[in-house]
Amino acid sequence: MAQQTTRSSDHFQLVISHCKEYGFVFGSSDIYDGLSAVYDYGPNGVLLKNALRNYWWKDMVQRHDNIVGLDAAIFMHPKTWKASGHVDAFNDPLIDNKDSKKRYRADVLVEEYIAKIEGKIQKDVDKAKKRFGDAFDEAQFRATNGNTLRRAKEIEDVTQRLKDALEQEDLGHFTALINDLGLSCPVSGSKNWTEVRRFNLMFHTQLGNISGEESKLYLRPETAQGIFVNFLNTINSTRQKIPFGIAQTGKAFRNEIVARQFIFRMREFEQMEMQFFVPPGSSPEHYAFWKEERLKWHHRLGLGEDNYRFHDHIKTAHYADAALDIEFRFPFGFKELEGIHSRTDFDLKQHEALSGKKLQVFDPVSNSHFTPNVIETSIGLDRLFLAVMCASLKEEILDSGQPRRVLSLPPALAPNHLAILPLVKKDGLPEIAKKIFQEAQLDVMCQYDDKDSIGKRYRRQDALGSPYCLTIDHDSLQDNQVTLRERDSMQQERVPIAEALDRVQKTTSLRSLYQ
Asked: Where are the alpha helices (DSSP H) in 11-137?
């Protein structure tokens, strides 16, 4: 029986090193010392990333008869970003520390301060829970404990000041808030700050060989606008009726000054978004539906339901009347994983006004045209990848005292579902193993491995996240059976080859996530 070691503060560094060592994520242009906040996905990383994307696509498009797919171009007419508000309003409040020369997002500094207070409250709760055991009433403790109430009041006050600064877009208010809270630079420890300033996040390039405003193009900062400008094309070609959705995955680009925490915040990243078009007045019910539907999707991954929480936005974006995040507990705290937004009819009306094209649908009941409202679900594929890696990577101590590193990925999403291992590289065992490999690779992702001892090969497959290993030994020559080893339990069972392959196929099917 394996005993999992306690997650330590350096768990995140373990995830980062594991990603490189086992071919999940590499620094971009690594031989040239890399490019800041840009990463490449290695042989195993691209398989996991594709599996996550496929899980989202099948759930969103294949399982809903009123959601269709799209793949819009990265380059779009520059008026697109004027209509969406990105040219004028897509910027972050940034502040510099004069001693460390490091730049930070002002709102993130304040949010991290709030998170630290929340951590202190949780620490007090955990201590009390340990002290009182089953008799502990957490709700009563939070409602009566002096320290907890004082800290909760501080969170409320700071949150309100942050909300005021965001809603009023008052940079001076931001600067005063940071100074009043006595926030210090994480690098230098000093409180020697500049004033808060605005910084636009869009990358721009030019069309053709002539530079100038008339030829300026932007790398899209989000994929949603490609859906909105294709609204009429899609509804006319698919004959969908409201309510219906358009789903899309693809790259987006943001000139993040404060890009950090590995692949959590990057300058080039991939989004998986769905825009759901609904009749005016029906947004609240659809917003509530997609909020719960998306959380169910995350829970099916089996990463622990207590690792997720809803977080309402302190300030909604200029296009939204309601917004929340599904946050995940990363090693560095709860952070945004997916956003659910009620975008009103802002986007379609903006594009209608600037393009001169009517972006409406006809309602035969009222005999009139209307502009649909939009509910958006938007998840970062790279952040989802990181969440899965952080939650799945474990270090254990076996009964023998030996350490084991295991990547307990959901079997359906593992880069390789099955490792086929001949016990030795002779006596006809490799020939049987390769025949099984050729038969299995049409149904599941397989890996053939005949290097090192069988024990070392098991450990490597554990670290890669392969849910099953199939070992061919000398008895297999006579009885046509193999040893099937399960990753998490390490249990081994002698079974016929056909039964082993059938079991692997069923267990690693996407259907297994819905059972």
From this structure: 11-21, 43-57, 79-84, 86-89, 106-132
What confidence score (pLDDT) does residue 104 get? Answer: 85
Q: Give the model confidence (pLDDT) of 317-365 as tens digits.
A: 778 889 999 999 999 889 999 999 999 999 999 999 999 999 999 888 8
Contact 361, 373 (CB under 8 A): no
The SS3 call for residue 188 is coil
Between CA 111 and CA 93 the distance in angstroms is 13
Query: What type of residue is 27?
Result: G
Q: State the DSSP H helix or E strand holding residue 328, giving kind and residue range, or none if neither.
A: strand 322-330
Domain boundary assignment for the chain: 3-89+201-391, 103-198, 409-514
Q: Determine whether domain 409-514 maps to CATH 3.30.565.10.
A: no
Q: Residue type at 210?
A: I
234 vs 76, 277, 278, 339, 415, CA distance in Å?
Answer: 17, 12, 15, 24, 34
The span from the CA of 136 to the CA of 132, in Å, is 5
Among the ranges given (61-75, 160-174, 291-305), the one the predictor scored with the smallest mean pLDDT: 160-174
Report whether 226 contacts 220 (CB < 8 A): yes
C-beta of residue 470 within 8 angstroms of C-beta of residue 487 = no
Strands 268-278, 244-253: pairing kind? antiparallel
What pLDDT does residue 45 have? 97
Long-range pairs of 424-428 with CB within 8 A, sequence gap ≥ 24: 425/450, 427/474, 427/477, 428/477
Q: What tens digit of pLDDT does each residue of 208-249 get?
A: 765 555 678 999 999 999 999 999 999 999 989 999 999 999
Average pLDDT, integer, range 371-378: 96
CB atoms within 10 A of CB 343: 23
Could you read off the pLDDT of 167-191 as tens digits, one per residue?
A: 787 888 889 999 999 999 988 899 9
The structure's pTM equals 0.84
Separation of alpha carbons 459 and 108, rounded Å: 40
We find that the CATH architecture of domain 3-89+201-391 is 2-Layer Sandwich (3.30)
